[in-house]
Amino acid sequence: MQPIKAQPLDVVIVGAGAAGMMCAIEAGRRGRSVLVVDHARAPGEKIRISGGGRCNFTNTGTTVANFLGENPRFAASALGRFTVADFIDRVDRAGIAWHEKTLGQLFCDDSAKQIVRMLTDAMRDAGVTLRLNTAVTSVERNGGGFALTLSDGTGVRSASLVVASGGKSIPKMGATGWGYDLARQIGLRVTETRPALVPLTFEAGLLGQTTPLAGVAVDAVVSVDKTRFAEAMLFTHRGLSGPAILQISSYWREGEAITIRMAPGVDVLARLKAAKAENGGKQAVHTALGHIVPRRLAEVLTAREAATGKLAEVGDKVLAKLDQAVNAWTVKPVGSEGYRTAEVTLGGVSTDQLDQTTMETKSVPGLFFIGEVVDVTGWLGGYNFQWAWSSGWAAGQSC
Question: Contact at 8 Å (CB) between 44 and 21?
């Protein structure tokens, strides 16, 4: 990358993640002098680890319905102007092979590092300067622009400042609340932030019942109120995880219960009654239930409902309880695993203080917020990356 220019810069971008790099590319291509600073040792670290190292870089089904926030429709402008197809085109032109998994999720065939390389190469070609291992220690308004002090003691001036610092999720990778602190410092409202797309945890008593199931996975429908997701669910040593749980975690709040169907589309009671009618009901209850759900889960549920022994020895009321235990399990998590394992941060800089077309703050000309630091949070499955690409592109046209 090029050395820092001595003269004042047009744009300083704080954060070399997905949104920050996309913004830098677009601003650089417009002929702007751009510096990207990040306290991390390498750019795009969340990109690198995402999707099991293959980066779920977007989702073909992306709409505003896949996002949360005080005003999810805020995202419509950016998503509509830099689309899923636009990013796929860039991936194709970079020669990166990809494939589609379930529910419109697109992944690299090889490595997520290819996406990072595509972005860093594009920044270099656009004349962008990248400084890593460098934090911003202070930000001040300076005439019509901004004056920043960096952790090495140097100062930088710019006409525009773009905050792409991300949220609090995965602190071991350096995530902090710096962007939220800066927003508050200049008088912007920050909505409540909390871990999202995160495993849920149980209290000790409930864990005593479910710990033997750690590692068991089922296809499930998990719901809170009227919101539901049909994906895989995984029992863990702390509670529940898997895509369905990560999805519902963005909607769940402490004190609320979630309802889980672990054999969706199956009339468990009818299946058990039919098995009971065969061969004089000689089959063990847990064996019959094990044809519907994983055997280990069947054994735990039949023991819990005192439905041991043969089917012939168990009344229909007990079988009905098993049906409820499988397809109407209502459970109250005690919490989540927190930012340590959360994929994203819910909440952030209030969208009512940003221009939806440019991502510029309405009260401070030249100041932009993009990506995860904004109160726009996507579902699991590539939606948050698409928001990063789209919001970064939008700001890059104007900063």
Answer: yes
Q: Which amino acid is at 186?
A: I
112: left (phi over 0), alpha (psi -120 to 50) or beta: alpha
Structure tokens at 364: 């401070």
The tokens describing 125, both together, are: 């070609």
Do 277 and 319 form a contact (C-beta atoms < 8 A)?
no
- Region of 140 please: left (phi>0), alpha (psi -120 to 50) or beta: beta
pTM, 2 dp? 0.95
3-state helix, strand, coil in the chain (%, to 5): 40, 25, 35
Burial of 232 (0-12, 13-18, 19+ CB in 10 A): middle
Q: What is the mean pLDDT of each run of 10 residues along the chain (399 residues)?
A: 61 98 98 97 96 96 97 97 98 98 96 98 98 96 93 95 96 92 96 98 95 97 97 98 98 97 97 93 96 97 93 95 97 97 97 98 97 98 98 98
Nearest to 247 by CA among 105, 115, 54: 105
Q: What are 180-228's pLDDT values in tens digits?
A: 999 999 999 999 999 999 999 999 999 999 999 999 999 999 999 999 9
